[in-house]
Amino acid sequence: MTDEPKIFIDEDWKAQVEREKAQAATMKPEAAPETVTEVDPNEGAMPEASMDTLVASLATQAMLALGLIASRGQEQVVIDLDSAKYAIDMLRLLRDKTKGNLTPKEEGALLQAVAEMEEVYVLRMQQYQEHALQQAGIDPRQLKSK
């Protein structure tokens, strides 16, 4: 008895592919789309990889999660504080790990992005807490006056 693996060839899928090819070849030209749209090869092209692009990407993720901008095709913004915190933490990590290795412009953009996202995060967290208090039947304004 040999330990050679047995090779099983499923001929059914090959036959199915051949039938589909034959069917496609016999289709009438009228079945093809009437208009052909040309696609601009530069449309949707990825930006050049740079520190500015990385910072902008992480800041955009934070802005989406904080509800500052809506996702493409969405009518409503969705606030996801956990995702926002993660994106801000990534910006902080980048700030800490690249300290002393950035140009003044890069460092300025990174520091500004971190500060702005932290500020909006704090405001969103306050809004969330006030909303939670209101849902519990507590007026947040009464708590502040004490």
Helix and strand succession?
Answer: HHHHH
Q: Tally the helices: what do you get?
A: 5
Largest sheet: none
Mean pLDDT: 81
Low-confidence stretches: 29-33
Q: Determine Rg (CA atoms, Å).
A: 28 Å
The number of E-state strands comes to 0
How much of the residues is beta strand, in percent? Answer: under 5%
* Structural category: mainly alpha
Q: What is the general shape?
A: extended
Approximate helicity band: 55-70%
Query: Separation of termini?
Result: 87 Å
Oligomeric state, counting identical vs distinct chains: single chain
Explain what the structure shows.
By secondary structure, the protein is mainly α. The chain has a domain at 51-144. Helix content is 58%, strand content 0%. It has 5 helices and no strands. Helix 2 runs antiparallel to helix 3 (81-97), helix 2 runs parallel beside helix 4 (104-135) and helix 3 packs antiparallel against helix 4 (104-135).
Can you tag this structure with a few keywords?
single chain; 146 residues; mainly alpha
Quick description:
The protein is mainly alpha-helical. The protein contains 5 helices and no strands.
